[in-house]
Amino acid sequence: MTYLAVIANTKKLEPGDRKRLNAAIEDAPFAKVEWLMIQKGSAAKQAAAKAVDHGADIVLVCGGDGSVRAAAEALVGTDTALAVMPAGTANQFANAMSIPEDMTELLELLASRQTRTIDTGKCNGMTFLVMAGIGFDAALIDSADDDKERLGMVAYLRAGAKEVRERKPFPVKVEIDGDKVFDGDASCVLVANIGTLKGFEAFPDAIPTDGTLDAAVVTASGVRDWAGLMVSAIRHKQHLSGRADLHAGKTITVRTPKKHRFELDGGVKGETKKLEFEIVPSSLIVCAPAESAATAVAS
User: How far is residue 183 from each of residues 80, 217, 235, 239, measured CA to CA in Å?
Assistant: First the structure.
């Protein structure tokens, strides 16, 4: 029988949803259930570590991508599986892994013990599951942060329109597996473990089971450049846009002469002049359908 630990972000999980989840769990075949309440996403790491120490088989995170990423930091390299009840704004990881939004379907998945083992990424020692970046993307996320609870995805669209008009390229150097691949001005550098965002294949070749990270050095500047890049991406021809250099490798180093904001899985983590990325192969067990959006990218 399964020992389930539930980490609930009280700022993300509505009281009504918590009651329905609790009732549904009581009807499910779990031998033991432990609830761990948190007030902010970053606290999910400590809560997940506690669940692992207690012997949990599955840690179910009820929250957004910040809570999921933090919990994953404590679950990487363990035999405890990560499960997600999406309760954030973007829910990048849950969408990419085709994790059910329906509560009943989600608990059926957990009870079946259907899992996948995926790679995770590290950036300056911190775990990320989907994507990380420096420059435009981090500025967009930071700009949208105050409004995302009220406006949802509209906050990101509004912030994106502002950053497209105002964001200027900056000097950056990028090394992949020790080889210099870029030295010039860029608007952002994105690094992906999973390439799918809300059904959109930002990195067509990025899948979380190939033992590599995918990187894009984006040089687009201004509305026309970004519009052209987006059209190319929709056509799966980012590499022909002239505005994105695509690479892949096991280690990636990004250097800038001045500090810039950087983000992990949609959460800004501060400012830095240097980012060091590495892939951690087959390091996280996830409760997810065998065929997911992340898998479909490879097919």
Answer: 41, 10, 27, 18
Amino acid at 179: D
pLDDT surpasses 60 at 295: no
- The arithmetic mean of pLDDT across residues 141-156, rounded, is 49
Quick check: 231 pLDDT over 80? no
3.30.1360.30, 2.60.200.40, 1.10.357.10, 3.30.1330.130: CATH of 126-281:
2.60.200.40
Q: What is the Cα–Cα distance from 246 to 238, expressed in whole angstroms?
A: 8
Q: Kindly give the residue spans of alpha helices, DSSP state H, lying in 188-260.
A: 223-234
Domain layout of the chain by residue ranges: 2-113, 126-281
- The rounded distance, in Å, linking the Cα atoms of 29 and 14 is 24
Nearest Cα neighbor of 52 from 85, 84, 78, 83 is 78
The letter for the amino acid at 115 is: T
Q: What is the pLDDT of residue 157?
A: 46
